[in-house]
Design a protein that fits this description.
Layout (H helix, E strand, L loop, with lengths): L4 H20 L8 H6 L6 H12 L2 H14 L14 H15 L5 H9 L3 H36 L14 H50 L2 H6 L24 H9 L4 H17 L6 H7 L4 H33 L1 H5 L9 H9 L4 H23 L1 H13 L5 H25 L3 H25 L5 H24 L11 H17 L6 H11 L6 H10 L9 H27 L2 H21 L8
Helix pairs in contact: 1-8, 1-16, 3-8, 3-12, 3-13, 3-16, 4-7, 4-13, 5-11, 5-13, 5-24, 6-7, 7-8, 7-15, 7-16, 7-17, 7-18, 7-19, 7-20, 8-13, 8-16, 8-18, 11-19, 13-15, 13-24, 17-18, 19-20, 19-21, 20-21, 22-23, 24-25
Length: 610
């Protein structure tokens, strides 16, 4: 692509500004681990919410969401439940407050508050560190693949003539961009990341609105209808997808088959079942958990996740739908001419060919902001687990604050190198993403559900449940291939991975003694979760007659159900606005208003006071 000098100038100015600002504020994040990883727990909830939303507005995910909206139409609304996106609702309603009450630095450190410090607790602690590091490396590889694919289409320079192998244009671009972002993410920690992400989110919002307006202006509903199959505009479905692209763009049928989503009813059931378990488990030990722990109190932790929902979905889907609509209107001839089109490249192709000169620079700056936000947030979450949860705890408990920060920077660099190496060997964004959501998170969920809601669950059960789940997630796809079992979608392996994890949890727990009453009573009285805590609840109340058990299960469950509908409306409304499907948009807007009013009275007004 040949960029106009104005576009190149905007991109260069943006990169320089972000790096200089990140380095300038990095001094605030260099005092100790608390300031480096959590910003001293002094940042306001709305800035942390915008930062979290910006971190989720990643380029790899945006390319994938454009792909699924193009291929699956409005039925793609359900596919992000793979992550699951509605975990933000569970966090918003109750889990963020529970987690923040623990007042710890990392997810692994939280294990001490639940299981104590005996051998079982130490094993549980190490299993969380293991998961966190695998998770960080996986997300760095995911970011690497998305950055490279996007930049190799959008940016004008070529470094090699090799279309395959390690030294491709895509991999070299990814390495350069991730290297630049690392300058401020590694040096400044949380404060640098949050400040730059707020700046990046502002650009992303302007970018999203611009793309949505361009699509509305350039593409009429009639042009869209000519380019889509029957059922594309309908979000509802039966057992089968029943979306036939034959005669319109035949290659899409092959993509749907390759994704393994033809039996959409089964896929939806697996996504929802896994999603509820993953949401009940609380946040994974990544940048999302880090933002919750960085809030000033439990009330602000809940508000922070509410801000994520408001800030993320509406502007992001203006962009996603705008790109998709422009592709449907103007790229179909080009796509038909390709023997095997890569639909993950729709986003950069549309920007390259169908956005006016001058606007492209701003849009590229916004999209580069997206990939830098996600990458910086992921990278900043990694070293806490190496330095705080391994080196400091087991080898050097008397580290000075400056030494902690120095070793954290080294750990960030090591995690970056490993993530880049894994990303260089991956072939597609979807390949990495499906392993993360279908395999890795499948092995994570059960141990992390039981830790909140069952008093008898102990450190040994957590360790064996985590390891059984994670190891089966890592090796089950290879075993299926070895046994000549074709698995079109990694999600189909979830029940098997879950079964291994459940067995590990129950056997590890029931074959060993419960945790000490003092540990369980302190955790229960501090966090105050609802669930199967009967014996511990009685002991706490006997010791402290003023203690009041959590009575909010019914309220939280109702708020979660309404909140999921509210989040779906925030996602669907911008899609139907850009498509100019006004009856759908009106009904969704009315539902959004009703659910917002309900949550105002039944959630916001009932949040615990600061």
């Amino acid at each position: 692509m040949k960029l106009h000098p104005l576009d190149l100038a905007i991109i260069v100015i943006y990169f320089v500004a972000v790096i200089l600002i990140g380095l300038w504020v990095s001094r605030r994040g260099s005092k100790d681990l608390n300031s480096y990883f959590l910003g001293g727990k002094s940042l306001p909830w709305y800035l942390l919410g915008i930062s979290d939303a910006s971190g989720m507005f990643d380029i790899s995910g945006t390319m994938w969401l454009v792909y699924i909206l193009f291929v699956y139409g409005l039925k793609s609304l359900w596919l992000p439940w793979l992550w699951p996106v509605f975990n933000q609702i569970f966090l918003m309603m109750f889990l963020s407050a529970w987690l923040r009450r623990s007042n710890v630095l990392t997810g692994a450190e939280w294990i001490q508050t639940r299981f104590g410090r005996d051998r079982g607790a130490n094993l549980a602690h190490l299993s969380v560190v293991f998961f966190a590091l695998v998770n960080v490396v996986a997300f760095l590889a995911y970011a690497f693949k998305g950055i490279g694919k996007f930049a190799s289409v959008m940016l004008p320079w070529h470094f090699t003539n090799s279309p395959t192998g390690l030294f491709t244009d895509a991999n070299i671009y990814a390495l350069l961009i991730m290297g630049l972002t690392s300058l401020y993410a590694i040096k400044g920690g949380m404060v640098s990341v949050v400040i730059t992400e707020v700046m990046q989110f502002t650009i992303l919002t302007v970018t999203s609105v611009a793309i949505g307006i361009i699509a509305i202006y350039k593409v009429s509903p009639e042009m869209i209808h000519k380019a889509i199959p029957a059922g594309w505009l309908n979000p509802f479905f039966g057992w089968k997808l029943d979306l036939n692209w034959t005669g319109i763009l035949d290659q899409v049928n092959a993509a749907i088959k390759s994704d393994g989503n033809e039996m959409f009813g089964i896929i939806f059931g697996l996504m929802f079942f896994k999603g509820v378990l993953a949401s009940l488990a609380g946040p994974a030990p990544n940048y999302d958990m880090q933002r919750i722990l960085a809030t000033r109190n439990p009330r602000e932790a809940s508000l922070m996740n509410g801000m994520v929902n408001v800030a993320l979905y509406f502007p992001r889907y203006l962009m996603i739908t705008g790109i998709t609509v422009l592709a449907l209107a103007f790229c179909m001839t080009d796509l038909r001419g390709m023997a095997k089109p890569d639909f993950e490249l729709i986003l950069p192709i549309v920007l390259r060919d169908y956005i006016p000169t001058g606007v492209v620079g701003l849009l590229l700056a916004g999209l580069l902001a997206a990939l830098m936000s996600n990458f910086a947030a992921t990278l900043n979450a990694a070293p806490a687990y190496i330095v705080n949860d391994i080196y400091k705890r087991f080898f050097n408990p008397n580290m000075t604050p400056k030494s902690q920060v120095r070793w954290s920077r080294i750990a960030s660099f090591v995690a970056l190198v490993v993530g880049v190496l894994f990303g260089a060997f991956m072939t597609s964004i979807t390949e990495v993403m499906m392993w993360i959501v279908g395999g890795l998170y499948g092995g994570y969920v059960m141990a992390n559900v039981l830790k909140w809601y069952w008093w008898r669950f102990n450190g040994y059960g957590y360790f064996w449940g985590m390891m059984a789940g994670l190891l089966s997630a890592m090796f089950m796809p290879s075993l299926a291939t070895l046994l000549h079992i074709e698995v079109a979608n990694t999600l189909y392996l979830f029940p098997v991975i879950l079964g291994c994890s459940v067995a590990g949890c129950l056997l590890g727990t029931l074959l060993t003694k419960p945790e000490e009453d003092a540990v369980l009573m302190k955790f229960y009285s501090t966090v105050n979760p609802w669930g199967a805590w009967g014996p511990i609840r009685e002991k706490v109340m006997k010791q402290n007659s003023a203690f009041r058990p959590n009575p909010d299960f019914t309220k939280d469950a109702v708020n979660v159900a309404v909140g999921i509908v509210w989040q779906l409306c925030l996602t669907a409304l911008p899609i139907y606005i850009v498509l100019r499907e006004w009856p759908w948009a009106g009904a969704i807007a009315a539902t959004l208003i009703v659910t917002s009013v309900f949550l105002k009275f039944n959630w916001y007004d009932k949040l615990e006071k600061a």
